[in-house]
């Protein structure tokens, strides 16, 4: 039996080694403390999710609606603000001739366009003909997100190319007067106020709105600074600011698109979702002898769950059917599950 005072160290090029605690380096101690903290943080979060699932299944709580009245109100105000800023940023771009200011106009334009595309997709999902689409058209939302991400990336990439052309040809003439600066600062100030309100609201939808507005505020401030410096001190600051703003936005949206593609082609769901489903399956009915296997994967933003359970082969069909059906109904109550399929078997065959 190994000495309990010895701790293992696993390296890529050597087998497991054991050494005394006093020989651990400072960086190794920090790494272990960080890993330990992350482990207990994930465990605490998982236990909280277990408790929420138990309350949901017992009928103590109801599934949260995706759109609450206050959140819808904030979303509508955000849409109206984006439409207003679209025209004010266009005016500021015309007055200044600044590429940095133009980058904020492109950002506002694509925000409105993406909101329109997502709105059309959601409307189509709600008005689905269930005869032609027996399982609905929920994937349209994910397709809409990917299309918006690609459009945002391409539009900002084109502006980066235009900024590079301006630098090479020396065609740089930004004009930042009081009117332009006032228009830009006024729009940013309104967004800051609405952003703070969304953060204070604290719901998932309002937090998403707040994060989007936070990014818009940051890009607007960078654009104002670079355009002002380009007008008064160093002309190349203006196209460089446009490259910075558009480069960050394009990279972010390309990453957003790439991150959503795996959900469209069947990526495995997060381990915590699998754990939540397993807990419900195990505690569902004592007549379930084994859990053969569980698959939780994405074909949309939500997940599909396939559960294979093993019960006594002598149980009547009615009993096995009722157990499986109630389990399926339980799992469908989870907000991240779009569809669930429960298969009954009399032996563990590994889904051969």
Automatic annotation (TrEMBL):
InterPro entries assigned to the protein according to its UniProt record, in alphabetical order: Cation_efflux, Cation_efflux_CTD, Cation_efflux_CTD_sf, Cation_efflux_TM, Cation_efflux_TMD_sf, CDF_Transporter
Recorded superkingdom: Eukaryota
Main location: membrane
Any one GO MF annotation of this record: monoatomic cation transmembrane transporter activity
Residue stretches making up the Cation efflux protein transmembrane domain: 77-258
Coiled coil: none
Keywords: Membrane, Transmembrane, Transmembrane helix, Transport
Record's GO cellular component terms: membrane
Residues covered by the Cation efflux protein cytoplasmic domain: 271-345
Residues that span the membrane, as ranges: 73-95, 101-122, 142-164, 176-197, 217-234, 240-258
Transport recorded as keyword: yes
Bilayer topology term: Multi-pass membrane protein
Entry similarity comment: Belongs to the cation diffusion facilitator (CDF) transporter (TC 2.A.4) family. SLC30A subfamily.
Protein's recorded name: Cation efflux protein cytoplasmic domain-containing protein
């Amino acid at each position: 039996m190994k000495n309990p005072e010895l701790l293992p160290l696993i390296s890529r090029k050597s087998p497991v080694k054991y050494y005394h605690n006093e020989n651990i380096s400072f960086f190794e101690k920090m790494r272990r403390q960080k890993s330990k903290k992350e482990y207990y943080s994930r465990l605490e979060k998982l236990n909280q999710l277990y408790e929420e699932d138990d309350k949901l299944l017992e009928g103590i709580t109801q599934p949260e609606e995706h759109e609450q009245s206050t959140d819808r109100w904030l979303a509508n105000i955000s849409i109206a603000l984006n439409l207003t800023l679209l025209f004010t940023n266009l005016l500021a771009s015309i007055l200044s001739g600044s590429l940095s200011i133009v980058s904020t106009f492109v950002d506002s334009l694509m925000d409105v366009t993406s909101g329109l595309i997502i709105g059309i997709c959601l409307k189509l999902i709600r008005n689905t003909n269930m005869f032609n689409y027996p399982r609905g058209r929920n994937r349209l939302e994910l397709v809409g997100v990917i299309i918006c991400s690609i459009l945002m990336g391409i539009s900002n990439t084109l502006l980066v190319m235009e900024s590079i052309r301006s630098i090479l040809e020396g065609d740089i003439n930004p004009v930042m007067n009081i009117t332009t600066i006032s228009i830009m600062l006024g729009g940013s100030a309104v967004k800051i106020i609405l952003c703070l309100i969304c953060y204070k609201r604290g719901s998932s939808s309002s937090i998403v709105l707040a994060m989007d507005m936070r990014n818009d505020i940051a890009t607007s401030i960078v654009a104002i600074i670079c355009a002002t410096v380009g007008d008064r001190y160093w002309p190349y600051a203006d196209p460089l600011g446009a490259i910075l703003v558009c480069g960050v936005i394009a990279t972010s949206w390309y990453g957003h698109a790439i991150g959503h593609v795996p959900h469209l082609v069947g990526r495995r769901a997060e381990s915590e979702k699998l754990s939540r489903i397993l807990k419900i399956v195990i505690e569902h009915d004592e007549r379930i002898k084994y859990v053969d296997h569980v698959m939780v994967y994405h074909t949309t933003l939500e997940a599909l769950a396939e559960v294979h359970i093993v019960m006594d082969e002598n149980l009547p069909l009615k009993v096995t059917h009722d157990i499986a059906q109630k389990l399926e109904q339980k799992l469908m109550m989870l907000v991240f599950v779009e569809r669930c399929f429960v298969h009954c078997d009399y032996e563990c065959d590994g889904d051969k």
